[in-house]
Amino acid sequence: MQDPMSLSRKEPSRGYQLGVVQEVLLALLAEDASHGYQLRARLELALGPLSAALNSGQVYVTLNRLEKAGLVSSELVGQADRPDRKVYELTAAGRARVTEWLEDTSWPKPAPAEFHVKLVAAAAAGLADPVRLVDAQRHSLLDGLAAVQRAALAEPDGSVAALLLEGVVLRLQADLHWLEACARYWNDRKGGQA
Amino acid sequence: MNAVESLPTVEPVLRTHAVEKEYGRGEGLVRAVDSVDLEVPAGETLAVMGPSGCGKSTLLHLLGGLERPSGGAVWLAGRRIDQLSEKALARLRRRAIGFVFQAFHLLDELTALENVELPALMAGSSPRAARSRAEDLLQQVGLGDRARHLPSELSGGQRQRVAIARALSNEPLVILADEPTGNLDSAATLDVLRLLDSLRAAGQTLVIVTHDSRIAAAADRLISMRDGAFVEETRLTHGRSGPFVELAGLEG
Amino acid sequence: MGRVLLVCRLAARDLRRRPLKAGLLLLAITAATATLTLGLALRGVTHDPYQSTREATLGPDVVASVAPPPEGAKAADLAGLEALTHARGVVGHSGPYPVVWGILSGHGQRWPVRVDGRDSARAPVDQPKLTHGSWVRDGGVVLEAGFANALGITAGDRIGLNALDLGSGRSVAGSTGRSFRVVGIAVTAASVPYPEVTCLAECAGNTGLIWLTRSDLRRLDARGPSLYVAYLRLADADAAQAFVDDHMFQQRSSCLPGEPCASKSQPPSLESWQQIRAESANLVENERRALVTGAWLLAVLAVASVAVLVGGRMADQVRRVGLLKAVGGSPSLVATVLLAEYVVVALAAAAVGLGLGVLATPLLTDPSAGLLGGTGAPRLTASTVALVTFVALGVAVAATFVPAVRAARTSTVLALADSARAPRRTGWLIALSGRLPVPLLLGTRMAARRPRRVILAALSVAITVSGVVAALSARAGLTEDQLGSASTLNQLSGVGGSVVDPGRVDRLSHVLLALTITLFVLAATNAIFITWATALDARRSSALARALGATPLQVGTGVSAAQVLPAFVGALLGIPGGIALIEAADPDAVTLAPLWQMIAVLVGTVVVVAALTAIPARLSARRPVVEVLASEHA
Predict the structure, then answer these.
(1) CATH number for the domain whose boundaries are A10-103
(2) How far is B132 from chain C (nearest CA, A)?
(3) CA distance B237 to chain C (A)
(4) What residue spans define the domains of chain C?
(5) What global pTM score does this model have?
(6) What is the CA radius of gyration of chain A?
């Protein structure tokens, strides 16, 4: 899953990626078989504000992959006044896959390790004061938090977007709390050595 | 209102120069605030953060004339306030400064309305004028229908909003808030956050001391303190938010 | 047994923890008990001295005197008097002696006196006992001890005497003053000592009593004696009053059979020794009444003081109550624990008060040195001890009973949670105070938070002012009294000098002053304590007021005003209260203190309360705002 802190390292021009598009499509097909165009519409509806992350051709590419993997099957359906379209439906394997995904409780792991190592390195090399590094990082995060919070406040209460943004805010808050603990730790160490 | 910031000749609402505050003597000497220089232009919302005991609350008290500095100077709207008598400071607090405290400090035996009209009464307004202003303010903070409730009948967030309404009573130049959400749960914090944000948008100068990063994130400028001195300062981005999906944390 | 021990231990510990409070409680109740002891001890304090005097002077059982002659008659008719000396039951007599009225001048003062003519030889009945010098001889005069004391005249001094015409109130025309030497000072049981000199057939107010030889007397007033007086001894001394009743109005009805009848003469006027003894008690009667009234006043004030000191604290004991109940204490045990320490203080106060009262009695009971033996050692009767103890306990219980019961009845859960007492809300008062200037706004709201305390403050002042007004009225009454009785001797405008016995007024004034000072001290302590408690209670709201822009002066004035307003109301109530008090204490009293004095008391009270409360008020207003606000809970 994506790490919010890696925003700064995004690669240009590939757009945003939503990693679980496959599973969502499978779930939609579990509800009802659809053809590609219809499926795309349904997907956008379901994703709501996140649908901006979809590439134009992403749905069809993903459906192909799924078919190749045997998780969906397709059927050509003749139409009276239109060209034939492919209708996709879920296979047994696909259903199993969706169920497995839904019941999966794994969660993106928090990763403080990298930053911590940065501080250790700075202290060891004497190149920077860990406490000052923490302060700088805090301010950077707060800047990010400010942007997210502003958007969250602009959203109407109870909207999906507000919910998603709240999640980001709270995680940033948690990270900030941890950074405060880091500051205390490195400050005490500094005091101990002095 | 924010255009004020761009005029260099306008006096900042608050200014300090090398202000210090010490407690104790000799071995037990504690320097709560250590030679701080600060300028708060009109209309700015400033957040001051830092660990416990870093002196941020003390700095706020010095800005509001609740304590006298041991050294340095403090100006409010161009007027030096650190040497004023108690009486003059009281007049200042009546006219130019509004306080918001962590513990709300509402009087339990007065209704919300009576609490809010208190500063106006103390400044000598007629009871009727004070009452109507209080009603307006409560309306403004969204508690118009709770005006006649006692504090014991209000939730924590509502009480703090009443306290903020009270602080607005005399149209102060600046509102000084000391941990305004310190005693509140997250839902109440959001209510107060929205209120502070609306005040900021209306051009009120605010100085907020806080632990809460959400409150700090609502400010225009953020200063971190440690051991009585400023260590980091950031101008926070506003109005420049990215696309939703970036904010939502999706990697691009 | 264990429970008793527990109660004692808890009470002792709490008292030790707050010695100042215990001391103040002791002071308040002791003031009442000491005063009450004093008042009670004064009852009968003159009995023993009178008895000694009677024995030493061969005091008479009956004093008989004959009225002055009617207009036109030549001289007083002695026949009735003579007849009496032979009446049934009389076993001895002396006299009849002649009596005239005179004006004595000496030591720059002039006084009306009753002059008795006597023989140099010892009389069988009523021979005054000399305390200084020797008995009468020609050219020498003997003064009654109380009178000499009041005027400051000693044996060896020279005095002048003029005859006095009681009818006109002037010196007898044509008589010349004569100078005499004071050869002796004596006491007698035949008359109450100065200034309550016994009335004979003719009354002349507060005169002095002196003795001359018969010949000197004749020379003094050429018209002849105004009165004759004889002293009788009866076979049965205790029957003296009965004898007096029988014979006093004999001539009005008819002669008793078997008695020599002198129907044509004027009836003699009689007085028994029991009457004289009772009147001797009047010497200290005013003081006694003042003290007993004062004692009750102080008792009520003590209740208020105790209520002030204790009442609020009782609520703080709530946690202790919760604990006791949680470990199984019954409500009665809990109430006992709460009351025990006050009962202990009350008993101590009773003991101290009794001791102080007994020690102080001699200061008041020198009945003008006119009786032998000074004062007897004041007896502490069992009834006095019982009454004083009862009053002390009553004060303590009255003040603490209700709060104790209320605290004991609190549910255990609430008690352990120990929520602080919420202040009361008085809507109308809050609305009203909005229209007042800032100090009064703050003050009234502060007072409104604790109505009970306001009432106690007003009550305390009302009691004190009542006492002061009553004392001033008593003093004014005494002065009038003296003035009134002397008006029959209006020649004294020519005599000059004060008609009021300074010594007598002094003593009563001292008692009244002492009472007033005690009342004042207690009330002042109350006022200061209440102010301090109010300021403490209002600490947060006054700090908040200052944070919102009130100056320390405004806040301090407000705290003071919270005291001054109830004090003003109390003072207003105290004035009619004092009037009611003096009426109750002395139903014969008709004089009230002059209006200007009452107004002065009213104004003075307000000023004093403002002054007393100013300091605690200012101190509390100067405390740094931040200390209070930045640290406290919501």
Answers:
(1) 1.10.10.10
(2) 13
(3) 32
(4) 1-55+280-421, 68-267, 425-634
(5) 0.69
(6) 23
